[in-house]
Specification:
Chain A: It comes from Roseovarius phycicola. The complex is a heterodimer of chains A (311) and B (289). Chain A contains eight helices and 16 strands. Chain A has 311 residues and is α+β, with helices and mostly antiparallel strands. Chain A has a seven-stranded antiparallel beta sheet, covered by helices on one side. Chain A has a five-stranded antiparallel beta sheet with strand order 9-10-11-12-16. In chain A, a hairpin with a 2-residue loop joins β4 and β5. In chain B, 16% of the residues lie in helices and 22% in strands. An eleven-stranded mixed beta sheet of chain B has the order 1-2-3-4-5-6-7-8-9-11-10, with helices on one face. In chain B, β1, α3 and β2 form a beta-alpha-beta unit. Classes of the chains: A alpha+beta (311), B alpha/beta (289). At the A-B interface, α8 and β15 of A face loops of B.
Amino acid sequence: MCGIAGLIHKGKSSSVGSEMTAMLQALKHRGPDSTGYAVYGTPTEGDYIMRLKVAEAEDMEKGRGIHQVIKDRIAEVEAILKEHGAKVKSKDAPREYSLRYVLNHKGDTGEMAEHIEETEGVEILSMGNGLELIKDLGDASVVSEAYGLNDFQGTHAIGHTRMATESDVDIKSAHPYWAFPYNDVSVVHNGQITNYWIMRREMERKGHRFMSNCDSELLAVYTAHNLANGVSLEDSLRQSIEEIDGVFTYLVATKDQLGMAKDTMAAKPLVLYESDDLIAMASEEVAIRAILPEEIDTYDPYDEEVRVWQA
Amino acid sequence: MAGVTDAELKEMTQEERVTALGMRTEALTGKSLYVEFDPDAEERFTYPWAPDVDFNKRTEMDCDGMTTTEVNSGIRDLMAQGYGTVVLKNPRGMHSLGVGILSKLNLIIEGSTGYFAVGLIDGPNVRINGRVGWSCGENMMSGTIMIEKNAGSTFGAAIRGGDLVCRGSVGSRTGIDQKGGTIIVGGDTGALSGFMMQRGRMVVCGNAGKNLGDSMYDGTIFVGGEIKSLGVDAVEAELTDLDKAWLTRKLTQYGLMPEKGVDHFTKIVAGKMLWNYDNLEPTEKKLIL
């Protein structure tokens, strides 16, 4: 019973970081295991923001050696960046195992990302011009505090609060997922995918990599695959209802779009609010009310419903 | 019947009757002796502790910053003080508001609620001037619920009595497992509405999603608009004059009468092809065989 939330401002920037925190905090009773954000700031052409983790939160308690291991992994990642000709413009470390780089890179970022992930224990959470993906264990207030999300300005965001049912409680199984290696695309999902292994093998045969055993990662890989083949976001969402089996409601964000899809059974909740300049959606109405306390009209999308909004 | 005449049975005490009817041969752990209520008792035999309220005694409660438990026990406290009209302000999507009210009460909610609003109620009249989330009015026994805007899925799940009315559209699986009462929807309803319905009536003025009335045992569904598809064993039946009269009365009562009247409604009932059950209780079987 995960909680998902998404919001998009049409044609203006807002403090989406704190708005999403308020929404996810209202949903935290749906799942206390981990919280994740995909927030979209102003895209800067040529510059990439890379968020990555070099260890799991639980590894930190595993002994003194871990600090050295983390240092070694970071050194390795930076060597790879150099090898691919990426210039590090700035570097932050909100947590010891979690880093944020601003890079200037001209070559094939997908190839570079794959190379970086060959390093043991390293997973790129996101890489894109506008996208920043943050996920960690704990509730929304803990995560947003640690990663300074309350100051984040942007146009749209999706978020997730997780109750682990189909895979482990760790950062790599937490949502959102970056649609690797597709620039700026992220996915959050509530539900279970029953043809996960069939679809996963199909995707692996097509050359995609999976970092976790979480069924939701499939949706990110699936979307990335479709988008890379020139399918529009809306068509990809529609196609997924046919091809992916199970119960699901999921949200996809790209650098300037936000989309939703609901399965044929409509067994997972979503409440939608739509106005001229703001669209907000969440598993429960309390999350929408957390940012819009005044009286508003909302509705539940029906089965097989697909919507896409432009920032 | 087990060697006793009706006249003899009438003369017996309940204790003797039970033995005479052969119910002692089965280990029923005293079930047959259980007295549900005493007909000589006071009128409010179901919930003797339920407070007497005065509808003209009115008060307001601001839910802002309160927990669900505080609001719900607050309503009970007010009822104990005799307040018959309670207005809840600023519910802001709070879950489980007003559940388990087992007495007459005029409850007005000024705003929208989250999941499980006014479930398990027996008696109150509720008006919600906003929308409701999933499972509103779940297992209500009697009373009325009136919702001004849209409602979420599993609207009126397992409802057993009373009138549950939504002016807007509702989500999927409306009236799942309905066992009585009336559900009225002003707008559209989603997929699998009336799933496993057993009794009662559902009226949808707008369109219905796919698999309407899937695996319904009994009960009736009236749809004013289009039906995307019927579920397993749900069949169309003829709209009788009695149905029309009933629809007219109910829809007029709640101000939801469509401009076209009620003649265009489609009536859906169970095909009863899935009825493969041995529907006698063990004791009943003994009495007959």
